[in-house]
Amino acid sequence: MADINAVAKQFTDFYYTTFDTNRAGLQSLYRDNSMLTWEGTPILGAANIAEKLTSLPFEKVQHKITTLDAQPSSPSVASMIVSVTGLLVVDDSTNPLQFSQVFQLIPDGGSYYVYNDIFRLNYGA
Asked: What is the pLDDT of residue 10?
């Protein structure tokens, strides 16, 4: 397996750059059996996930990663779990939102696809 942290960094750099500039371009990272849980709501399949991400109610978004952790998720396949926390700046707001996101990446040819994706905004108590 390639250096898991390097793969996780490369994936998240691509994912968040694409999210911030061309959300429709994220569809290719998912498959028909992929699942996104967005703020507690499960969404199944690449097309449905892309529809959700492109219909989010903001024009401009910027992700600022705070932490990035990765672990292997199978002893027999080069899959991995990637956990991300950070700040989300929406429509040039001066009050960024805190978020957490977890991906399970599955090898596919020479690359990976997102099998599971869990996204949550983190609100203060």
From this structure: 96
The residues pairing with 113 across neighbouring beta strands, listed in sequence order, are: 106
User: Would you state the structure tokens that stand for residue 77, as one six-digit string?
Assistant: 């396949």
Strands 97-108 and 61-72: unpaired
- Residue ranges in the chain modelled with pLDDT below 50: 1
Q: Return the closest-CA partner of residue 91 out of 56, 46, 54, 58.
A: 58
- Cα–Cα distances in angstroms (integers) from residue 17 to residues 7, 100, 102, 119, 121, in the given order: 15, 16, 17, 16, 19
What pLDDT, on a 0 to 100 scale, did the predictor assign at position 93?
87
The residue written with tokens 């507690």 in the block is: 40
Rounded-to-integer distance, Cα 112 and Cα 122, Å: 27
